[in-house]
Write a structure and sequence with these properties.
The chain is mainly β. The chain is built from two helices and 24 strands. The chain is 4% helix and 45% strand.
Length: 364
């Protein structure tokens, strides 16, 4: 028999254990007995509509922060669906650590720091905000260039920060709404709940019974009502139709623009904390297509004409160059002027809400 290497003792032990039905020894990774830190995050929920978050800024930040018809929209406020249970699970518990229930805890490697936990509510005693939050913590003193150093940030619904004792500035943003407060961190863990007093609005537009396509409609939102006095403060520009926008509780003035001419409507809306307000802006306008033709209506089109659309009083509403310009015009009377090869042609027409027009100007 040819001589060979004898099997190792470890291999013999494993074969005997398998043959006798004995349990195998624990793996090397399991034998280290290192508890894993649970992931921090809110309880899963899909009941709330998503809220447009603030654009992410990865930089240091200074803490902070009517010729058209007018009418006031009804509130039409619909409450958020309440969440089940009480506070979301926000604090990880380390196995074997003497931590009281509800007290923030940190892994041993952060022994020189303090656990600071936050969550946010829509209003005092109301439901928790589950998404759309952006938390930042800054040093409380500015640097030489005047900026405040960013210490930590998170987009979790209920983050836990590890901070050394000292003074800081907390900045939390929810959509267009932001809140700032100073923090004094000692050696004791801290948990705090931020009351945002915020709600949300969803804006859409209609002409008659038809909903306006989002690509042709936008909204500018200003703080305060139209008759509140003072200089209006722009909160958000060109909000797309149908987007859910988070706003602080209060009254806002909305300017709805349909197309790129004069189809504009203004309205005041009221935002209540913890509620979504669905507002529909009713436009009185129509789409108008212009065409310059030869000799008679229905004749051959003439290209490269320069167009000007005026009001009866002579105010210029829209200028364009081309064979078939198209525009959205508010209800009313207009004068279309076409210029081609040194000659000028014109035609008067009326626009009725929801009735699109094809206007032919005859070159005679």
């Amino acid at each position: 028999m040819t001589a060979g290497r004898s099997p190792s003792p470890l291999l013999i032990a494993l074969v005997m254990a398998a043959g006798l039905g004995l349990p195998a020894a624990p793996s090397l990774a399991q034998s280290l007995d290192r508890p894993t830190l649970p992931r921090i995050g809110p309880a899963p929920s899909t009941e709330l509509p998503s809220v447009a978050p603030e654009p992410q800024r990865r930089r240091r930040h200074m803490p902070g922060g009517a010729a058209t018809p007018f009418f006031t929209l009804p509130d039409g406020a619909t409450p958020f669906t309440p969440q089940m249970g009480t506070s979301p699970l926000i604090i990880p518990q380390i196995p074997g650590a003497p931590v009281a229930p509800g007290t923030p805890a940190l892994p041993p490697q952060f022994a020189d720091r303090t656990a600071v936990a936050f969550d946010a509510r829509f209003r005092q005693g109301g439901q928790y905000v589950r998404e759309g939050l952006h938390w930042r913590i800054f040093a409380d003193q500015p640097e030489a260039n005047g900026a405040f150093a960013l210490v930590a940030e998170s987009r979790d619904a209920a983050p836990v920060f590890a901070l050394r004792p000292g003074a800081y500035i907390l900045h939390v943003a929810f959509g267009t709404f932001a809140q700032t407060r100073r923090l004094r961190i000692t050696g004791e863990p801290l948990r705090d709940s931020i009351v945002l007093n915020a709600g949300a609005v969803r804006l859409v537009g209609r002409v008659g019974e038809a909903q306006i396509r989002n690509a042709r409609l936008s909204f500018d939102i200003y703080a305060g009502g139209l008759f509140d006095g003072g200089e209006p403060r722009l909160v958000m520009r060109q909000v797309p139709a149908g987007d859910l926008v988070a706003l602080a509780e209060g009254t806002y003035h909305v300017v709805s623009t349909y197309g790129d001419a004069n189809a504009t409507i203004r309205a005041d809306i009221r935002i209540r904390a913890g509620q979504v307000t669905d507002a529909t802006i009713q436009h009185r306008a129509a789409n108008v297509n212009l065409k310059l033709v030869q000799q008679r209506e229905g004749g051959d089109p003439i290209g490269n004409a320069a167009w000007t659309v005026l009001t009866p009083g002579g105010d210029v509403i829209k200028e364009s160059i081309g064979a078939y310009p198209s525009m959205v015009l508010q209800e009313g009377e207009y004068l279309a002027i076409a210029r081609h090869e040194g000659r000028v042609f014109n035609r008067r027409f009326n626009v009725e809400a929801g009735k699109d027009l094809n206007i032919e100007v005859v070159a005679r």
